[in-house]
Amino acid sequence: MRFRLTPRETSFYDMFAASADNIVTGSKLLMELLGADSSARAEIAERMRAAEHAGDDATHAIFHQLNSSFITPFDREDIYSLAGSLDDIMDFMEEAVDLVVLYQIEELPKGVEQQIEVLARAAELTAEAMPNLRTMTNLTEYWIEVNRLENQADQIHRKLLAHLFNGKYDAIEVLKLKQIVDVLEEAADAFEHVANTVETIAVKES
């Protein structure tokens, strides 16, 4: 790790950890959605919306701190990228829940639960990794595993698309369900973007 003579603003570490913890909350709400009937989904969507707003607040706090700090713990562009990618995850998860409610989906296709399980695991790994930015230790396994999970998510997504286009669903239902599974795939991609940014930071700081 590079030796520094100047003090560094350390509150970023706590803010990144808080943002990642909020993502875990979002992933749990996604899991809750799976077992909920249509009458309970609107309330889950409200809680997810509140979590997404909390994520927005966390991101704005990071950007505000970045704009007011002379010395930062690592490169400014990496702080910006990391905060933005964490925010993207919450946005995609909230969008998926909202679409389920707005489209009045009665039953999600088989395979969506696997998508959400992958997101939940990635959320846990991300929350565990963020505090380690302070020391830049125990991060390699994190980004390797998140990349593996994203590859798994890709495979699940492709199988879901094949299922949706097998003729079982009418055209309108296919469009609705495809949009939902696509957004969940984007959430998986955003987790990978976070992991790749963490890897970039670690390499620069080594």
UniProtKB/TrEMBL annotation:
Top-level taxonomic group: Bacteria
InterPro entries associated with the record: PhoU-like_sf (IPR038078), Put_Phosphate_transp_reg (IPR018445), UPF0111_domain (IPR052912)
Family statement: Belongs to the UPF0111 family.
Protein name (database record): DUF47 domain-containing protein
Organism expressing this protein natively: Streptomyces triculaminicus
